[in-house]
């Protein structure tokens, strides 16, 4: 999945790996959908490797909320 997200004043074009969640059952607790950041670019520059982990977490949270 590719999406545009604004975080901390910067516009990022992000590529995420999506893993669907599972509903809870009587045997399993279940879990929500998960988005894992694969790459992030801003102004045409790949910044994936230098992003603060807190920003990565924020981008993944924002992707879940879209």
Helix/strand/pairing category: alpha+beta
H/I helix tally: 1
What's the number of extended β-strand segments?
A: 4
How do the strands of the widest beta sheet line up side by side?
1-2-3-4
Low-pLDDT ranges? none
Biggest sheet layout: 4 strands, antiparallel
Radius of gyration: 14 Å
Characteristic terms for this protein:
four-stranded antiparallel beta sheet, about 70 residues, alpha+beta, 4 strands, elongated, single chain, about 20% helix
Please outline the helices and strands.
Elements: E1 2-7, E2 10-19, E3 34-42, E4 45-46, H1 53-65
Antiparallel strand pairs: 1-2, 2-3, 3-4
Verbal overview:
The protein has 66 residues and is of the alpha+beta class. The radius of gyration is 14 Å and the shape is elongated. Strands 1-2-3-4 form a 4-stranded antiparallel sheet, covered by helices on one side. The longest helix has 13 residues, at 53-65. The protein has one helix spanning 53-65, and strands at residues 2-7, 10-19, 34-42, 45-46. The protein has 1 helix and 4 strands.
Write a brief caption for the model.
This protein is 20% helix and 41% strand. It has one helix at residues 53-65; strands spanning 2-7, 10-19, 34-42, 45-46.
């Amino acid at each position: 999945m590719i999406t545009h997200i604004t975080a901390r004043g910067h516009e990022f074009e992000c590529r995420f790996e999506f893993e669907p969640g599972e509903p809870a059952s009587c045997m399993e607790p279940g879990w929500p959908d998960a988005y894992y950041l694969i790459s992030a670019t801003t102004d045409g520059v790949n910044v994936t490797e230098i992003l603060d982990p807190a920003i990565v977490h924020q981008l993944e949270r924002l992707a879940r909320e879209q």
